[in-house]
## 1
Amino acid sequence: MSELTREETEALIQEVLEVYPEKARKDRAKHLAANDQSVEQSKKCITSNRKSLPGVMTVRGCAYAGSKGVVWGPIKDMIHVSHGPIGCGQYSRAGRRNYYVGTTGVDTFGTMNFTSDFQEKDIVFGGDKKLAKLIAEIEMLFPLHKGISVQSECPIGLIGDDIEAVAKKGAKEMDKPIVPVRCEGFRGVSQSLGHHIANDSIRDWVLDKRDGQAFEATPYDVSIIGDYNIGGDAWASRILLEEMGLRVVSQWSGDGTLAEIEKTPKVKLNLLHCYRSMNYISRHMEEKYGIPWLEYNFFGPTKIAESLRAIAAQFDDHIKEGAERVIAKYQPMMEAVIAKYKPRLQGKTVMLYVGGLRPRHVIGAYEDLGMQVIGTGYEFAHNDDYDRTIKEMGNATLLYDDATGFELEEFIKRMKPDLVGSGIKEKYVFQKMGIPLRQMHSWDYSGPYHGYDGFAIFARDMDMAISNPCWSKQTPPWKKQPEALEPTEEGDLKKVA
Amino acid sequence: MANIMVGKTAVGAYSFYLPKRDLEDAIVSMEYDSADKWGGEIRLNNGGTYYIEPQALPARFPISLRARRLDAAE
C-alpha cells in the first residue's frame, strides 16, 4: 500500500477508535498518532507508559518479566531464583534465546529454571524459611555458581516476606552475593518498571563491589550495555568493536558474567544499545564514575557505519582508523547482500509492533533493503523513546503505543503491509490473515540480527518471510471468485475453475 | 520536590533529566551560573521551570539534585 497522507492516517485512527465506549476512546486516542517530525517533544503527540485499559487485549508483560527475563536472566554464572509459585519461572524459561557459552548446570545456568515453588502453606506461613533452605541447597548442588538473585513473584510482595534479610544472611554464610530483587509482577504498568528495578538492584548490590580494586586498564576499554545476545547478537556486535581496536570488558547482560558486571565501572565508555532497559544504570555510572555513555545502533550497514564512526569519535586516531578499516572490510559483503535481496524487497512495506529499542532501531535496516516502515509502536516505551522515534520515522506514518489486539488488527487490515514485525502472540493472527510476520522479539528462532553478520541473516529472513509462496495460497480455490482466478505458475487453479 | 539530574552536553550546555517522568530536555536559562553561586530558577526548553537551591558550582556533571517544580509544561 502506498503512503497515507496525514489526513488519511488521522481518519484511520478515528475509524478504529469508533468501536470503543466514549471513555475508553478518549483514553486510547492519546496513544495513537500520526507522526509529526516537527514535534520536538513526543509528549505533544503521543502518551506512553500509562496503565493499560481493563478489557482490552494488551501484550505487555510484568515487572518480573522485565527483571528476571530481560535484565538478570542472561547473566549466565548466577542462579536466578523465581521466588514464588512455579508458573512464572517455568513459562518464561529459556524462551528468549539469550545464547551463552558454558556448561549448563555446572558453571552456567541460563536455560535452567530455579524456583521456590510456593504452596498454600508458604503463602499462609511465609516463605522465608523455604528461601533460606533453597539457598543452602543451591550451594550444595551447584557449587560453581557465582551468586544468586532472588526474583520476587507477586505473592512475595503481597504477603510481605523479608527476602532482603534472608539474602543477607545467606550471602554471609556462603560468601557469595545474593541479590534480592523486588520485582513483583504487580509493580508498574509494564515490564518497563521491572527493568528499572533490576537496574537499581544491580546498582545497589553488585556494581560497587570492586571499587578500589586493582584493574589492568587500557585506554580502549568499553562495555556493551543492553545487548541480550538474542541468537548471538552481542557476539556479532562484539567482534566489530574488537576489530576496530576496542577492548570489550563486559557484556550486559547477554552472555555476561557477574565478574564482568562488577568490572564495568572501570571502563572508559559505556555503549548502550537497548536504551529503554538499561539507560538507568548508564546514567548512574555517568554520575558516580564519570563514564560517558553513547547510544548506538547495529541494525543495517548504514546505521552500523554511523554508529562505528560515532563510537570511534570518542577515542583517538588509532580507533578512528580501525572503524574505517572495519567499515571498508565489510562493505563488499554488505553490497553483495543488498544486491541480492534489494531487488526482491524493494518497495515492500513493514509495520512493527515490538518493545525496547527495535521499533526505531530496525527502521534503518529495512531502509537499507529498500523497504519502508509505515507504522511502528512500542509495548512499553516511555516519552524519551518516542522522542527518539519521531525523528526516525517518516512524516504522517502511524504510531501506536501499547496497541490493543483490536487496534493492531484493524490497522494492519487497512494498511495492508507486506510484512509485520511483532511477537509470537500476534504471529498466527496475521499469518491467518495472509500477511507474513516475523517474530521480532527473539528473531523468530533465527539471528543474530546485530552487526554486519547479522544483517546478512536479517535480509535473508525478511526475504524468506515475504517471498514465501504460501501467502498467495491462503484462499482455497473453491472460495475464489471466478473472475479473481488468475493463472498461477502451476496452473492447477484454472483446472478447478 | 523532585529528584532531577543536571548534566552537560558535548557542547557545554546544561541538560535536564527528570527520571520519574523520563523527561530529557535542554536547560535554556539558569538564574545563577558562577563558581560560587549556581542554581536558582531554571527554565527548560519545553517551557517548564524548576528551582534549585543556589549552591556552589558542582565539581562535576551530571549531578543528581533536589529541585522544586515552579511550573511544569504539561
## 2
Amino acid sequence: MTADLAALLYLVSGVLFILALRGLSNPESSRRGNNLGMIGMAIAVGTTLAVAAPPDALTWGLIALGVAVGGTVGAITARRIAMTAMPQLVAAFHSLVGLAAVFVAAAALYAPQAFGIGEVGNIHMQSLIEMSLGVAIGAITFSGSIIAFAKLNGNMSGAPIILPARHILNIAIFGAIIALIVMLVMSHGADTWTFWAITVLAIVLGVTLIVPIGGADMPVVVSMLNSYSGWAAAGIGFTLENSALIITGALVGSSGAILSYIMCKGMNRSFISVILGGFGGEVAHAAGKTETRPVKLGSAEDAAFIMKNASSVIVVPGYGMAVAQAQHALHEMANKLKKEGVKISYAIHPVAGRMPGHMNVLLAEANVPYDEVFELDDINSQFPTADVAYVIGANDVTNPSAKTDPKSPIYGMPILDVEKAKTVLFIKRGMGSGYAGVENELFFRDNTMMLFGDAKKMTEEIVKALG
Amino acid sequence: MEIDPFIFRLSIFVLAIFVGYYVVWSVTPALHTPLMSVTNAISSVIIVGALLAVAVDLLAAGEGGWIAKIFGVIAVALASVNIFGGFLVTQRMLAMYKKKEKK
C-alpha cells in the first residue's frame, strides 16, 4: 500500500468518526452513527496493519495478544457495567487513553525510525515538541482520571482535599514540565530521563489538580478530562503524521470543551473557579445556623392521592435517584399514573447527576420513552400549569433562592421552577442541605410536601398505595 | 517555495476543531453520556501508533527496539479495552433510548 492511499484511508476513517458524532443529534440516527464509528476504527487499524506490516509471526502474535486481552476486558466491562456506574466507567476509560498516549510516545522515543521521525538521539525537534505535549497531557489525563474515578466510585471521599499552597505548587510543577520539555528537545531526544521526568511530574500534576475538586463538580471534571484525552491524542497524531488521529483528537478535544462549558453554565460558575476547586463538598453545611422553621410532612399515601387526582405531573430526578437506583420504581409509578389519565413528563437539569446526560441514560434504562424527557429550557415554562412536581433526589437545582437571594452561593444558577407547580412533592432522606451547603427555601413553602425516606422505597410505597 | 507538511496537518487540525465544535453543539443533551463514551472509543484510534511501535523492525532499531515493542503491546491492550468497551457500551446505551409506544 502506498503512503498516499494510506493517508486517504485515514482521512476516510476521520470522516466516519465525524459522522459518528453527527449521528448523536437524535436517538434514531445515533445507532447508525455508532456503527459508522466502528467501521472507521476498523479501517484505521486495517490500514496501519497493511502499511506497516508486522515483520514476523512473533509480532502478529503480540498484536493478537494485546487486542485479545484488551478487547475481552473491554467487552466484558461494557456488558456488565451498571448504568448508574457510567460516570466512573467513562473516567476509567479516559485514564486508559491517557496512559496509551504515554506508552506510544515512549515507544516513539526509543524507536523513532519506526515512526519516521529521525534516529535515536537525533529525533526531529518538531516531533519532540509534539510528542512531549502529547505525553504531558496524556499523563495528566491518566492520573487525573484515576482520581476522578476514585471520587465517583466512592473509593475516595468526594469532599475537596485542599493541599497547602496548591496554586503555587501547581504552577511550580507546570514550570518544571516546560523546562524539562525544553531540555528534551535541546538534547534531540538523547536524554531519555527528561522524558520520564516529564511523565512523572505530569502524573503528579494530574493528582494535585483534581484532588481539590469536590464530588458534585465531577461533571465538569469528567468533561474536561474527556477534552484532555483528545488533545493528547492530537499531539501524538502530529508526531505520527496521521490525519485520522489528528482529526479525532480535535473532535474529542472540542467535544469535551463544549461539555465542560455547558456544565459550568448549568451551575453558573466559571470554568476557572471549578478548576481551582475547593467547592462542592457533599457534606458542606452552612455554619452555625440550624433551621427550625416547620415543614409540611406527608406519607406515601398522601402523595399517591395527590398524584392520582392530578392531571399533569412533572418528575425532577437528581443524583439521589441514581444513588438509590430508583429509576425502575419511578417508571412503574409513572405507568400507574398514566393509567389514571395523568400526563407525565420528566425535567432534566443540565448538571443533574455526576456527568452530562447521566439522568437521561438512567431513565432510558428504565424504559422511559425519550420523548417524555425534557431539558430545562424546554420544560421550565410548564411548571405553572403542572399540578405536581415530583422531586426525587434533586435539591440545589430546584432552590428558588438561586433566583432571589444574591447572597446565596448558588445565586444566578439556572434552576427548574418547581415551586410554581400547584404541589411540590419533595423526596429526601433527611433535612440536610444540598452539596452547596445551602438551605432550600422550597422546603418551607406552603405548597411543598416533604416525603422523608429513601427515594426508591418511597416511590415503591407510592406505587403500592396507587393500587 | 515548498510548504512544510506540518502546515497541512495543522490546517486539518484547526478545521477539525471547528467541525467538532458545530457537530457537538448539535448533539442532543439527552445523548451527552453516549457522546462521552463514543468519543472515548474513537480517541483510542491512538492504537494506530501502538501498532507501529509493535511492528518495529528489531534489526534496524537496535537496543531500543525491544523497549518500543513492549510499550507498543501494552498500548495496544490499553487502547483495545477502550475500543471494544467504548463502542459496545455506547451501543448498549443507545439501544435503550425508545420512543413512546403507539397504542
